[in-house]
């Protein structure tokens, strides 16, 4: 099983945290690196439409294969992982071990483990925190259905809306079952810890300026009808990150990465010749 150890880091309370192992999987081969960072309570399986769209792969690479993909310069290598507290990654018991800063450091440690100097970073709140903490490691940044911090419950109206031939409730349930089959039910410690990270997440003016002035492209992607993470917050974030940021509003809700996978994939700020994969394999 591919794991990255991030043990021994100082906790917020000054103590040493317990050993934490981050479970990850790699897909595809190539010099272009993409790291996908899932949001609250999600597992790496949630990125399936993006993984397939970017690499054409549905199965992870051989664990013994070199992380550089054997020098396939024109390909894309994608890494996605289970955040601490969910799936097959470790579940620290202390709530203080869950903040977006700590979880962003997990992602950076994973990049070090893979030997990646930089990567195109795509994800939720942890992605923006990573970019603020280590802008030199970011080739580009794409933020999906980001929130203004704090926990927002999923409204019943949202769950009952029809997407294609199914409801969002059924789609979410299927994703939940898929996650259970691979990593088991999320524990109370993991749920409460990740909830704490959501509650306490924020970007300071200095962090926003660090992202804005870093020189990489920032895309803020959001479903127009997202009632979980309000579109207002995404628009405000894009405004604060001008002129580096571009706001992209797509037809869909909080599951826009599943509702409109081809549109989401093609917005990735990677070389245009690679984006043909997004349309062909989605």
Automatic annotation (TrEMBL):
Gene3D superfamilies according to UniProt: alpha/beta hydrolase (3.40.50.1820)
Family annotation (InterPro entries): AB_hydrolase, AB_hydrolase_1, AB_hydrolase_fold
Domain named AB hydrolase-1: residues: 34-146
Signal peptide stretch: none
Pfam families per UniProt: Abhydrolase_1 (PF00561)
Protein's name in the database: AB hydrolase-1 domain-containing protein
